[in-house]
Amino acid sequence: MNELKQTDELEDELRPEYDLSELLKHAVRGKYAARYKAGTNLVLLAPDVAEAFPDEQAVNDALRLVMQLAKIPGAHRELITAEQ
Domain-by-domain residue ranges, the chain? Predict the structure, then answer.
């Protein structure tokens, strides 16, 4: 019974000026479904890393460069040796 009372209270909170039939009359079902299905890949950068890149294009360019370097034979071993 408590749940029923809470549901009634939530329904009462909707203001009369918010007529859902009017608000949703131009709505399109599944408008963003394809984008949602395609997915998104968000990555949170550490603050010091984020400072080095002014925008997402700069991050993408840097990562593409790293990917190209990874394809160079021996480059990966040289990078690991240089870090140690």
Answer: 2-83
